[in-house]
């Protein structure tokens, strides 16, 4: 469990994030987490299928820090995002645009990279360009291909955006 190794779980993480991080640890590391964080019998854990064992670990840890209700919500969110690959009920970001975001122009479009930056889900414009170039950004289920492209908006419409494999945003233009 190390921040420098990228396998830590913060106590203040949202339940869904905590659950997802626990589900993504390696099978070998899972046993170490069980040993350090639970009172579970390791021999019993080793007899379980790794996916079942991780699910049980995630449930225990999320319950410990966020309660039973949070476990069910986090588990449902995990299944929806990663097993069914559906757009989640609660996206990671919700961006609301107004006409002033378009410099009061009647051309309601913005550079795709700028839209990605507004979500706060990419750390830099260069990372946004890289994701787009590699086909890692979808809007309304369509992959974006041109990192220099413009994204047109229609007043009163929402645009579901998938960024990478695990990040989701809604871009809404009230008009």
Describe this structure as you would to a colleague.
This protein has 175 residues and is α+β, with helices and mostly antiparallel strands. The chain folds into two domains: 15-83, no CATH class; 93-173, RNA-binding S4 domain (Structural Genomics Hypothetical 15.5 Kd Protein In mrcA-pckA Intergenic Region, Chain A, Roll). Helices cover 43% and strands 17% of the residues. A five-stranded mixed sheet has the order 1-7-6-3-4, covered by helices on one side. It has a two-stranded antiparallel ribbon with strand order 2-5. It is elongated, with a radius of gyration of 20 Å. It starts with 14 loop residues before the first helix and ends with a strand. The relative contact order is 0.12.
């Amino acid at each position: 469990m190390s921040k420098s190794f990228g396998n830590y779980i913060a106590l203040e993480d949202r339940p869904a994030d905590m659950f997802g991080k626990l589900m993504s640890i390696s099978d070998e590391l899972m046993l170490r987490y069980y040993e350090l964080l639970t009172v579970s019998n390791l021999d019993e854990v080793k007899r379980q299928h790794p996916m079942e064992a991780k699910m049980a670990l995630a449930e225990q840890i999320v319950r410990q820090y966020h309660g039973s209700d949070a476990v069910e919500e986090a588990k449902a969110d995990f299944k929806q995002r990663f097993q069914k690959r559906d757009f989640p009920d609660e996206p990671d970001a919700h961006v609301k645009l107004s006409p002033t975001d378009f410099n009061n122009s009647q051309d309601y479009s913005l550079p795709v990279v700028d839209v990605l930056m507004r979500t706060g889900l990419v750390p830099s414009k260069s990372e946004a360009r890289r994701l787009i170039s590699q086909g890692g950004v979808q809007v309304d289920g369509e992959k974006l291909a041109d990192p220099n492209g413009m994204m047109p908006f229609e007043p009163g419409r929402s645009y579901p955006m998938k960024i990478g494999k695990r990040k989701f945003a809604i871009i809404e233009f009230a008009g």
